[in-house]
Design brief:
3-stranded parallel sheet, about 200 residues, 1 helix, 6-stranded parallel sheet, mainly beta, globular
Length: about 200
């Protein structure tokens, strides 16, 4: 026998506060939720970080992650289909992801147009922005700040097509980043460019 499962279908606005929301704020909180294109997601100060892994959607939305969220951990947006543009306002560090022990890179398998990693990011760890999924991700766009000083091994592994990194600094500044050789040569770097 199988049980009918009620999948919530939120619409309108979800306010994420330190006391939770109408959807449980936990890992994969929006898993298998059909999020319509009109949904707005509002973070409040002190709120736990909403993880959007495995979210499905009938329309993508733009998401801003506020400044109090300074680190991004494994699996945070893995396989998410919810966002078109993702912008971090205070991200400082993406730690190493231990893929050999089953950890998922934060954006692996996610369907997105662009990810703006903010203006204060200093380090992207091993596999930090990688796509290790069997899902092909093509034409991805990443925005990286001049504050970046370290790029780990395989940090941008697994992207195909016309994937680009827009770097806010000069070519000389880019070449001085530790681990810059870890970025695949198939990814095009555009210098002195910031998001609109």
């Amino acid at each position: 026998a199988t049980a009918d499962v009620n999948v919530p279908q939120p619409s309108g606005k979800i306010n994420i506060t330190e006391n939770g929301t109408d959807i449980d704020v936990s890992q994969y909180a929006l898993a298998d939720v059909d999020v319509n294109a009109g949904l707005e997601i509002s973070f409040k100060e002190g709120a736990p970080f909403m993880l959007f892994g495995y979210t499905v959607t009938s329309g993508q939305i733009d998401i801003e992650v506020p400044a109090q969220y300074t680190e991004l951990y494994d699996g945070a947006f893995s396989y998410a289909q919810i966002f078109k543009k993702l912008k971090f306002l205070g991200l400082q560090r993406i730690p190493n992801v231990d893929v050999s022990n089953g950890e998922l890179p934060p954006f692996t398998g996610a369907n997105f147009e662009s990810i703006d990693l903010g203006t204060s990011l200093t380090s992207i760890g091993n596999y930090g922005c990688a796509n290790t999924a069997s899902v092909t991700i093509r034409d991805a766009i990443f925005y990286l700040p001049v504050t970046l000083t370290n790029i780990g091994t395989n940090a941008f592994h697994g992207y195909e097509g016309n994937t680009k990194i827009y770097y806010a600094g000069t070519q000389t500044q880019w070449e001085n980043i530790t681990g810059v050789s870890n970025v695949p040569q198939t990814i095009r770097i555009i210098y002195e460019t910031t998001p609109d």
